[in-house]
Design goal:
- The protein is an all-alpha fold and 213 residues long.
- It has one domain.
- Helices cover 64% and strands 0% of the residues.
- It is built from 8 helices and no strands.
- The longest helix is centred in the middle third of the chain and has 25 residues.
- It is globular and about 40 Å long.
């Protein structure tokens, strides 16, 4: 009897997770894939290097980190940031019942707010640099990032907590697995995922963020 109840509960949780996830934005996934594919030509991180999390760094450390970014990586970072935030703006309207609420309503605070920080763009492009990237390998990661964006928007619209979102959990797990499949070392996966979590949390509850800073 207990086994049957456990099985039924597992099926219910699975159904809730599937229901909570929106269908992937195929055009958005393709766009992010195209942006990130340019990283194939960049040097990979040395084998033992652990990516720094820029958040706790002092101002001088952050400035040094910014100056260490190559022009090609900087270009990819900017393109990725612009495209993802344009997708965010489009999805914001779709998730709120197809209406742009202007300066009123639960998502009014999204005007001028972005999901992508400099930290996220830097971390993601750094760990993917020099990897054997392809559309098929990048699609699960791009789809997962868009899923995290959508889940954050749903939480903002519903005034619900991000940590209670089955869709956000599922997308986060997918992003983690996708990064590992792409050959990103576990410590660096943790850095990227931590930044993605911070950005999603700020999208739901934090102050407006510049599009690329």
């Amino acid at each position: 009897m207990r086994a049957m109840k456990t099985c039924a509960l597992s099926l219910l949780l699975f159904a809730m997770t599937v229901h909570a996830q929106r269908a992937p934005d195929a055009a958005g996934v393709s766009q992010l894939n195209a942006d990130l594919m340019a990283l194939k030509s960049l040097p990979t991180l040395p084998g033992g290097d652990t990516l720094p999390d820029p958040l706790p760094m002092a101002v001088t450390g952050r400035e040094a980190l910014r100056h260490s970014v190559s022009p090609v990586q900087e270009q990819v970072m900017q393109q990725y940031s612009r495209d993802l935030n344009m997708i965010l703006a489009k999805h914001r309207v779709t998730i709120v019942d197809g209406k742009d609420e202007g300066l009123e309503g639960p998502t009014a605070g999204l005007r001028g707010k972005a999901f992508v920080s400099w930290d996220q763009a830097y971390a993601l492009t750094s760990v993917l640099a020099g990897k054997d990237l392809s559309e098929d390998l990048l699609a699960p990661l791009s789809g997962a990032i868009l899923g995290m964006v959508d889940s954050a928007l749903v939480c903002l619209n519903d005034s619900s907590r991000l940590r209670d979102s089955a869709g956000f959990r599922a997308s986060s797990e997918q992003a983690y697995k996708a990064l590992r499949t792409l050959g990103v070392a576990p410590p660096n996966v943790e850095v990227v995922m931590g930044i993605l979590f911070r950005n999603a949390s700020m999208l739901v509850a934090g102050p407006p963020r510049p599009l690329y800073k």
